[in-house]
Specification:
By secondary structure, the chain is of the alpha/beta class. Helices cover about 30% and strands about 25% of the residues. Helix 1 packs parallel to helix 8 (about 295-310).
């Protein structure tokens, strides 16, 4: 059996090595158009910044090492330019020898990845993409020439990672993002925390703006702003590289990736597709989705090898769990965000929390922001996001595991998670999300979201800030009056009969005050996530502008 694999990174190489472990005799040919295989493309930004000092550390394997251990026939600087499905044959161009040849296959695995999106902007050819080792070599060389000003087009994962690493190299850096926030998978009140972190490290942000032209020395924006730019980095995003599949007549899906079944077979049963090029199944609604993540590509490569060898294969569905480092912050997410739920017309209970990374009485505890979205009927967890200096990664991992395992939001309170003061609290942040969700889902307490404050005002609601006078003096929701939680019983007669929106710092004292006011006969709702969530939201920004 001859299996030809197009693409030697992540999914392609996982398929090749798994297949060899299952079949000693199969002829496995890997064809990679770049000069390297099995490299850590997720580490490329950190090589630019000098955090990863040696390029060799990014190269996990070489053609020689893969032959020595697995007897894989790995051909780099080579590209498959045509697929003849009827004859089961591919045509290969060897860039090194400038020659071409044909190879027959029994099975073909497509893993060409995704290609950077390059908009039709005058002068865009000067911009550096970052997708391959060759890309990082060119970009690192440009950074070594000590540019004074860099402009990054795009505020997604690669954009913010490159921004951090350019600042580490002392380059004045600006991000231009067409949307009204960076990191689109986050909801706006969470993205604002990341934007603040970038600006604290002197990264300029131009949101709601686009690049109209790239000149030899600058970048011109649609707003009319001219940004000096010795260096321009293109980080708008990627799209599945389906040109070869399309020319071969394989079915391309509505999301622009190759349509595959539960075994990653394409519309041709002898051809499989894995990684960024293939459409995935969304774990929450079963729709087609694109998730360009290495761990998913690796898993798909293994699935294909197992299926080829007749092994039992579990169907894959994807949550899109991801994480990124932005200077001192960890930013992570899993499942759907609120924006997507609203767009889909799907109701959700929203829970914000700002717990400490570990017990507050143990030195070094750092606050984090967590957001969870829950189906109000089934109580299933639909998604979660986290931003913080410490402890975010393990909480999102627990929540992603809970979604996969079908654990409902209230059941998070039942999880027995490792606790000692240096590592967590007796009520872990994940447990706290469960407690809060249970209170809301059972109707014990009503909450108001940051974007609903104006709606409550229009109903004539009064804003009551239950923090201390000192906290209140530092800032509150406009129009709020200060009645500290410990004084509510004695000062309840100062409130009128209108509904009450209770404000505290993070929602915890607000919960206590809301319950007390409810007992006293008031219609009271707790501002979810408190002043800390509201103050980092577009609602607060709008109040400041007004």
């Amino acid at each position: 059996m001859r299996v030809i694999i197009i693409g030697g990174v992540a999914g392609g190489m996982s398929a090749a090595t798994r297949l060899r472990r299952l079949d000693h005799d199969a002829e496995i040919v890997v064809i990679e158009r770049s000069g390297h295989v099995s490299y850590a493309n997720c580490g490329l930004p950190y090589y630019v910044g000098g955090v990863i000092e040696e390029q060799a550390d990014l190269l996990l394997q070489t053609p020689a090492s893969l032959f020595e251990r697995f007897r894989l026939d790995v051909r780099v600087s080579s590209e498959v330019v045509a697929i003849d499905r009827e004859r089961r044959r591919v045509r290969v161009e060897d860039r090194t020898t400038e020659s071409s040849y044909e190879l027959d296959y029994d099975y073909l695995i497509l893993s060409p990845g995704a290609a950077p999106i390059v908009p039709p902007i005058p002068g865009i050819a000067r911009a550096h993409p970052l997708r391959t080792v060759e890309d990082v070599e060119r970009l690192s060389g440009a950074v070594d020439r000590a540019p004074r000003h860099a402009v990054i087009i795009g505020g997604g994962f690669i954009g913010v990672e490159i921004a951090e690493n350019l600042r580490e190299r002392g380059v004045a850096t600006t991000i231009v993002e067409a949307a009204d926030q960076i990191l689109a998978p986050l909801d706006p009140e969470m993205a604002q925390l990341v934007g603040d972190e970038l600006e604290r490290h002197d990264v300029r942000l131009f949101l709601r703006d686009t690049v109209e032209a790239v000149t030899p020395t600058a970048v011109q924006l649609a707003s009319g702003e001219i940004l000096p730019a010795d260096l321009v980095v293109l980080a708008i995003g990627v799209r599945p590289d389906v040109h070869l599949a399309r020319s071969a007549g394989l079915v391309i899906g509505e999301r622009g990736g190759i349509v595959v079944d539960e075994f990653n077979r394409t519309s041709d049963p002898t051809i499989y597709a894995v990684g960024d090029v293939a459409e995935k199944v969304d774990a929450l609604d079963g729709s087609a989705t694109l998730v360009p993540l290495a761990n998913i590509a690796n898993r798909q490569g293994r699935v294909v090898a197992d299926h080829l060898m007749g092994r039992s294969v579990r169907p894959l569905a994807n949550l899109g769990t991801a994480i990124v480092k932005v200077f001192d912050l960890t930013v992570a997410m899993t499942g759907w965000n609120e924006k997507r739920l609203v767009a889909a017309g799907r109701d959700a209970v929203v829970v914000h929390a700002h717990p400490g990374s570990h017990a507050g009485y143990y030195p070094g505890a750092r606050s984090m922001a967590l957001k969870m979205l829950v189906d109000p009927v089934t109580e299933e967890i639909l998604g979660a996001q986290g931003v913080g200096v410490e402890g975010v990664d393990k909480r999102i991992d627990v929540l992603a595991t809970a979604i996969r395992g079908g654990i409902t939001a209230p059941e998070l309170a039942d999880l027995e998670l490792a606790y000692a003061p240096p590592f967590s609290s007796a009520k872990d942040p994940v447990n706290m999300l469960g407690y809060i969700a249970e209170n809301v889902l059972t109707g014990l307490v009503r909450t108001a979201q940051w974007h609903e404050v104006d709606q409550w005002r229009q109903r004539g609601a009064q804003m009551v800030d239950v923090r201390t006078r000192h906290e209140f003096a530092r800032g509150s929701v406009p129009g709020a009056i200060n009645v500290p939680v410990d004084e509510i019983r004695d000062r309840a007669d100062e409130l009128d009969d209108a509904p009450v929106v209770v404000v505290c710092q993070v929602g915890q004292r607000g919960h206590t005050a809301t319950r007390l006011l409810t007992h006293l006969g008031f219609e009271a709702v707790n501002l979810d996530g408190g002043y800390q969530t509201w103050s980092n939201s577009p609602a607060a920004e709008a109040e400041l502008v007004a």
